Predict the 3D structure of the following.
Amino acid sequence: MPVPDRRVSMQQLHLLSYNIQVGISTRQYSEYLTKSWKHVLPHREHLPNLSRIASILHEYDFVGLQEVDAGSLRSGFVDQTEYLAYHAQFPYWYKQVNRNLGRLARHSNGVLSRVRPSEITEYKLPGFPGRGVVVVELETTDESVLAVCILHLALGRRARRRQLDYLRELAAHYPYVVMMGDFNCDCDSRAFKDLVANTDLRGLDCEFKTFPSWYPRRNLDHILASGNLRIIGVGVRVLDHPLSDHLPVSMKVALPEGVQLAT
């Protein structure tokens, strides 16, 4: 991997979460039908679109990706997490394969980081197999860790409730925590509201919509940070980059005064 051409603040992290829909650009609902073959077979547009996505990721310190393919027929056997890490110049990357269909498809979450992780742990979420969360631990100078959790939750309400309960228990194990990804639910979800109400996670903003990217009406993608992390600026931002069927979301967080990421 090339050495990144930008330095990371040791007290702050600029975060991005993006459901990239396997590199498929969708511009209207009818394309879910007319372009459905792209979820199965390779196509010539996916690498140029991945390159456009990489150009967006370049300015961030830590990126969580959902709906990434880990190298199968439909992606032209390109490991999309590795491809984005290389082209956006991230020195550390990791993929969590949650649904492995062999040569046909390898559904994954992806991690890109400019900070060296001290530990990475995969968890399978409750419900039908194929959903997971990957926890990336970054050491801090107060002999603790900042845990960044990248997740993609189920479509079904009952399974999602169990998964959100699981995430609440997971968050309790870490002193500093960020949860980000495609939650597949918005502020109308009682289970999601319970997660926020029963933890000190902050950053929920119901005004910002991420789906569908061509006419955003639902806020399915979120970044939440524990109360001991300072959210810098306006908080979560939705970026106008419709290169998938979701829009990416970003947030900048800072560790408490006197605490930094360990080098």
Observations:
- The two ends are 19 Å apart (CA to CA).
- The mean pLDDT is 92.
